What does this fold into?
Amino acid sequence: MNNPTLFDYMVGVTTLQAKTLCHKADPDTSRQAAQKIIKKLTEKQKSALRAIRAYCQNHADFTPKEVAGGINRLYFDIQRRKNELAGKGFIALTGSPERGGCEVWKLL
It folds into this structure.
């Protein structure tokens, strides 16, 4: 009999972060809880996402510099949170060439 190990991540969980929160042998309720907790955002993530959504109402894609519009604090908040938001499935890289020295992202 094969016993699951700590690193036997479950199949059917969509995000990498959710996969690390539960294992193959865990019940469905654990998988559902992992999916739910991954979507929760911190206050800084919410703030960055609000700014991105507002900018994307008039633009197809964005860079952190474009969203910030010259406000340094906002730029650094977005720059620091973009990978977290991507990991949670809210934004993704477009694959377009860099603009103004920044990667180009899109809202999902």
Notes: Confidence is low (pLDDT under 50) at residues 3-16. Residues 59 and 106 are 9 Å apart (CA to CA).
